[in-house]
């Protein structure tokens, strides 16, 4: 299940206002988001899990630094990016300074986060099966077979759902839908 920016923000602000249930729901929802973030950048599954845990701790301990007027995911991914940089420093990994923007996505990061929110809103307007197939194959990078296994449907069903969903999105963007 994919969680929207609005829901994440609501849980974060609820947690800031003292709602322990909202805060717990936020931390639980962040696990798959952070895994996907680190998986796109790293290959060592142990390192990924360590960074997910470190980031969850940082979200908890630094939650007061969140600006309620800004997108939550932009703040979250900034925390995650800094945790990854700290990990590289601890391990004394060397990287080409000129390539850091590419590795960490610092340039245009907020715009990319806002674009992700826009994509999520578009996908939320589709039937769940189509939106899920598009998210898994086009955004999360799963193969058709992996997406089919995750959803418990056939590969051809995934392909059809992606095709129909993208067709509906294109029509909506052109102003032909809703």
TrEMBL record:
Residues 118-169 form the RNA polymerase sigma factor 70 region 4 type domain. One of its GO terms (biological process) is DNA-templated transcription initiation. The keyword DNA-binding applies. GO terms for molecular function: DNA binding; sigma factor activity. The keyword Transcription regulation applies. Pfam families: Sigma70_r2, Sigma70_r4_2. InterPro entries: RNA_pol_sigma-70-like, RNA_pol_sigma-70_dom, RNA_pol_sigma70_r2, RNA_pol_sigma70_r4_t2, RNA_pol_sigma_r2, RNA_pol_sigma_r3/r4-like, WH-like_DNA-bd_sf. Keywords: DNA-binding, Sigma factor, Transcription, Transcription regulation. Coiled coil: none annotated. NCBIfam families: PRK12539.1, sigma70-ECF. PANTHER family: ECF RNA POLYMERASE SIGMA FACTOR SIGD, RNA POLYMERASE ECF-TYPE SIGMA FACTO. This is Sigma-70 family RNA polymerase sigma factor. It comes from Sphingomonas chungangi.
């Amino acid at each position: 299940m994919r969680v929207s920016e609005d829901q994440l923000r609501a849980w974060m602000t609820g947690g800031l206002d003292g709602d322990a249930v909202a805060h717990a729901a936020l931390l639980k929802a962040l696990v798959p988001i952070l895994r996907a973030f680190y998986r796109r950048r790293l290959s060592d599954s142990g390192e990924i899990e360590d960074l997910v845990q470190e980031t969850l701790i940082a979200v908890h301990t630094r939650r007061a630094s969140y600006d309620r007027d800004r997108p939550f995911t932009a703040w979250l991914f900034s925390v995650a990016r800094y945790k990854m940089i700290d990990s590289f420093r601890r391990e004394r990994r060397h990287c080409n300074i000129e390539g850091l923007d590419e590795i960490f996505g610092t340039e245009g990061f907020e715009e990319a986060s806002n674009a992700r929110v826009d994509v999520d809103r578009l996908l939320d307007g589709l039937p769940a099966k189509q939106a899920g197939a598009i998210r898994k194959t086009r955004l999360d990078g799963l193969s058709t077979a992996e997406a089919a296994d995750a959803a418990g449907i056939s590969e051809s069903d995934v392909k059809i759902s992606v095709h129909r969903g993208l067709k509906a999105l294109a029509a909506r963007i052109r102003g032909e839908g809703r």
